[in-house]
Amino acid sequence: MEAEKTLTNEEIIRELLDLLKKNTMKEQANDVFEICTYVDVLEKKIDSMTEELTNMQNQIKEMQEDTLINNAKKALTEAQERLNARCEQIKSQVSEIKVQVKSTAKNIVDETKAKGRAALYRVTEFVGIKKRLLNVRTAVKDMIVSTDRDIARTALLAKGLREAGQTVNNAFHTFADKPEVDYSQKEQKHPFTKAVLAPMKAVKKLLVSMELHLDASIDKLDNLAMNVRFDKEKRMEQTKDKEQKAPDTEREIIYSPMVAEPQEYKYNADAFEARKTSEAKQETAGKELPKVREDKAR
Fold it and tell me: What is the C-alpha separation between 80 and 54, in angstroms, rounded?
């Protein structure tokens, strides 16, 4: 698979990841990146399966022509075609997932540019590919079962052909008065074991690996939704704290002038009259004091 065709190298995906990181949503960016990576790996494994099945097809065509092999070739070709058809089905499903991922990313990027950070919460829409991933996983599991069956049948066919060939070969030895060959001491393989069984087993290994990657990608989608929810709750809590602090500031502004009211009250008309009366009393007391002293002198 060419590098430019991977999701992680798509310009729109990179732009979305940059927006998430710049808006302190690093965990969500990592989740999106890993989801895209899983899809890329799936596509790469499908390409590897296609190569194995193509190699198997070529090997079957090149097998030696004889009556027994010709009958086997037809059954093997049918098995190869069944596997190839399932492989193409899975490849088509993965391609649809890629299209949906790119479309979702573009919508999120466009809305974020227009409306701001809140639009980035739409990354949860990537969970929309979960159903498609589940469908791919079902197809992969079915293909694993089918491949196991074909491997078993092919192994049995190889055994039958090998034993038939050994019987015919020993019949010729007997006819020629030669000792029979003890094949139990020889490697028990038929030529198309390498041609057919090896590619089938390679496909089975790739399918098992794909199933693990599909499980991981589905878990990552759930993790993405959880991280978005946590981010929302965190920002709501921060907003709530700011709102709770705001009224305290307002009360200080509203009621702070009342601190000056007692000071202003000292300078009104009543206070001025009270002060004049107090000064008059002090003046009268000052005039009477010498008279008291004069009486004492007498």
Answer: 9
